[in-house]
Design a protein that fits this description.
Helices cover 34% and strands 17% of the residues. Strand 8, helix 16 and strand 9 (347-349) form a beta-alpha-beta unit. The longest helix has 22 residues, at 452-473. The strands form four sheets. Strands 3-2-1-4-15 form a five-stranded parallel β-sheet, with helices on both faces. The protein has 474 residues and is α/β, with parallel strands linked by helices. The two termini are 45 Å apart. The model has no long low-confidence stretch (mean pLDDT 96).
Length: 474
């Protein structure tokens, strides 16, 4: 370790956000960067613990103490090499990961963890700027072909590793650009899409073939895939949104959050959307139903579109400001999370159940909600009951951000005949193989909606299993 007493001498220093009344008028990334000397000092705070809980908590198994030390010593190439060894695109997790590593950092006992996520992003950006990151073109090729369906984090991670061991990899994407929900689900103010393009351009140089505007199951059949490829990796994500079956759901102005975010990302990228199809928050009373990251992204996007007022409601109780005794370090803290979007202007409410939507001339104008109370039963299950009288919230635009129930089964998945779990996800065995021999699955499609970093690791794991399968076959 570079400085054994760094964590004592140096205080945690975050890069912070761009000024609020500057950033809300554009979709540029909100997070700022520290200078090289400050970043070195932050890396010196790593304690090189006997048990690296940060490494334990990281889904991709990032060897955090080692690359923190390299960053402190100014060894950019070494730090990047260590990071890239467990993660195909650390520049993305350095921007959008909720950093379970920091929540498990020993210094987080005092709520001053090492700035691991920011250090990661800075390390990779420095590596790109220094010309350290270059295409790694495989020296030889096998005779095997693999089709990866979906170009999100799981698909790209799997494609990268399978290509590096010499297989021919074709990635199919239903949209016109690569990235899946990295591109279309995450706003530019969190992840500028040039970051995705930079990495996928490297992948192209390395030999991965991307096939965009290809909806597998429609533009090409599952049967054709099985005939043309030696293995198929399903990485289509979990895109079946959770809906609300209440009166007035059909009113104009009630939309799924993802439809809103996808369209906004396309508009920011300069794509034309027909006027009658545009979902805009400009000048409207916006209500976001759902308190997670997707809901937060809807808040930030609505702010930038010029919403008059934004309310975000959640059916669950308000989380505590600090950890409860039954949620100790180093586990993930079940506490209140406030994003940069929330700071930009949003009224947050908890323990509210949506009862119905009402409107005029087919357009939503109001919604009726009622307070709920949660109690834990003797069997450990939570029970919800309504309390008080219904209340009215003004709403010209309602965005349903209540998560996703399972992958879209109609089309490719049903055509292939893969099995499903009780939750509706694609069922896999210990080798991430589905009920169809040549078909594997990774990420949200088999896990359920989760973090980008979980999807990256799933892609790495499925790549290893597919490689073993292909080598046994040959």
């Amino acid at each position: 370790m570079g400085d054994p007493t760094g964590f004592i001498k140096i205080k945690r220093k975050e890069s912070g956000y761009r000024p609020l009344y500057e950033r809300i008028y554009d979709f540029g990334e909100v997070e700022q960067t520290l200078n090289a000397e400050d970043r070195k000092l932050q890396a010196s705070r790593c304690m090189d613990c006997g048990i690296p809980f940060c490494h334990w908590a990281c889904p991709v198994g990032s060897v955090i103490p080692e690359w923190q030390d390299a960053l402190y010593r100014g060894e950019t190439a070494e730090a990047y090499s260590i990071l890239h060894a467990t993660n195909s695109f650390p520049e993305i997790t350095g921007r959008v990961c909720p950093a379970p590593c920091e929540k498990s950092c020993v210094l987080n006992i005092e709520e001053t963890p090492v700035t691991i996520r920011e250090n990661e992003c800075a390390t990779v950006e420095n590596a790109f700027a220094s010309g350290i990151v270059n295409a790694r073109i495989p020296q030889s090729r096998t005779s095997k072909k693999v089709a990866v369906i979906g170009s999100g984090p799981a698909g790209l991670s799997a494609a990268d590793l399978l290509n590096q061991v010499g297989h021919t990899v074709h990635v199919f994407e239903k949209n016109d650009h690569i990235g899946g929900l990295l591109r279309y689900g995450i706003p530019d103010f969190k992840l500028n899409k040039s970051i995705i393009d930079r990495r996928t351009n490297l992948f192209r140089k390395e030999g991965i073939v991307f096939k965009t505007n290809m909806l597998v199951g429609k533009d090409i059949s599952g049967a054709q895939l099985l005939k043309e490829y030696d293995a198929v990796v399903l990485a289509t994500g979990s895109e079946k949104p959770r809906d609300l079956s209440v009166e007035g759901r059909e009113l104009d102005g009630v939309h799924f959050a993802l439809d809103f975010l996808i369209q906004s990302n396309k508009r920011v990228a300069g794509q034309d959307i027909p006027e009658k199809e545009i979902i805009s928050a400009k000048g409207k009373q916006v209500v976001v139903i759902g308190g997670g990251d997707t809901g937060s992204d809807c808040v930030g996007t609505s702010v930038r579109q010029g919403a008059e007022h934004i309310t975000q409601i959640e059916i669950l109780p308000k989380p505590p400001e600090k950890r409860n005794s039954d949620n100790p370090w180093p586990y993930w803290p079940q506490v209140l999370r406030t994003s940069s979007s929330h700071q930009e202007g949003c009224t947050r409410k908890w323990s509210l159940l949506t009862k119905k939507f009402t409107g005029e001339n087919g357009k939503v104008k109001q919604m009726e909600v009622v307070a709920v109370e949660w109690t834990k039963q003797d069997n450990g299950q939570w029970h919800m009951k309504e309390t008080g009288k219904p209340k009215i919230i003004q709403a010209d635009l309602v965005l349903l951000a209540m998560g996703f129930v399972h992958p879209v089964q109609d089309g490719l998945l049903n055509e292939l005949g893969v099995g499903y779990t009780s939750r509706g996800n694609v069922q896999v065995n210990g080798q991430r193989q589905t009920s169809v021999e040549k078909v594997f699955a990774a990420g949200d499609v088999e896990r359920g909606a989760s973090l980008v970093v979980h999807a990256i690791q799933a892609g790495r794991e499925v790549a290893e299993q597919v490689h073993d399968f292909l080598m046994k076959e040959s």
